[in-house]
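Box 4.2: Ligand-aware structure prediction
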Amino acid sequence: MMRCTSSAALALGLILVTLISQSYGQKLQVGYYNGKCWNYNVEEIVFNVVKAKFARDPTIVAGLIRLQFHDCIVRGCDASVLLNGPKTEKTASPNLSLQGFYVVDAVKAALEKACPGVVSCADVLNIAARSAVFLAGGKWYFVETGRRDGFESHQSEAIANLPSENMQVRDAVHLFASRGLSKEDFVVLLGGHTVGATHCDKFESRLYNYHNTGKPDAKMTSNMLYALKKTCPRRSKNQVYFKNNPKSHYRMDNTYYKNLLVNQGILEIDSNIASSPLTNSLVKKLAYAPGYFESRFGPAMVNMGRIGVLTGKQGEVRKYCGAVNHHKH
Ligand code: HEM
């Protein structure tokens, strides 16, 4: 009798799980596309396209890593950042300096050739970012897939949700927590700033008029202040690399954290995570514990890739990442 009841309960449970997964689609999983694109390896197709583009233009590694962040933090990882149109996320001012869209388009075109309508743009962003991390010398990690693409993208949401470079650590930790990410995830993910560059206007006030004092930020070393002022006179449109070692501009290593500890953070948020008691010990660990940053970055990207994922009928697989297939009525 007992056995009968428990197996009936099990059967009922299975039916329920099946029904739920049919209406909401499947959860994210590693290798979701295995066997779904003939006998092509979807992740390998993505990697090869990114690798070919990277060979000509290493800056795209920074572009692709940042794209995943800017997608996931606004409306979840639904490829809303890729939609073109008058008032879409792309048009919000922090997104005007995003780069790497052409790589996403090339990846998507290669996938559509292999198996049309199978691989979502949201997954392309996540797989492409992992490819970028690896090509930049970071550790390979297993990426979860199975996301669908969203139907909406709003400039106002990007403005409201993308973090500001002058943010206090406490507020940034809250923002990430509201997306299910821990304080450690936040500090590790900010290590994305180990690659790429920033425009001068994003930290100009630190050079000339820090918090309306009429003076530079006292946390900057005089050497660095001198060098940055040279590249960034007032109202300059120039860019500076996050790291000052030319060999390391596009290398996924932990010199970002080492620099922070000698007051060489460029953006205020970079410098803040080193000085804040909330995050200072984590920064030290990331700077000094061998291999720690390298082993934590991938898992933190995976956690970020879980934000607000759409499955089943909540989304679609776009044919072209810049536009939805059907407008919802
Ligand atoms: C509080 C959080 C963050 C703030 C305030 C912030 C802010 C910024 C700013 C102001 C820039 C320069 C953009 C420009 O010049 O127009 C930038 C660049 C960049 N950010 Fe962040 N960021 C944050 C978190 C992240 C995270 C979590 C990642 C990735 C995991 C990331 C990856 C990048 C990369 C790779 C670049 C360089 C892009 C390039 O060279 O094309 N950032 N960020």
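In the box above, the bound molecule is protoporphyrin IX containing FE. Residues 62-63, 65-66, 69, 97, 99, 163-165, 167, 172, 189-190, 192-193, 195-199, 202, 267, 269 surround protoporphyrin IX containing FE (CB under 6 Å).
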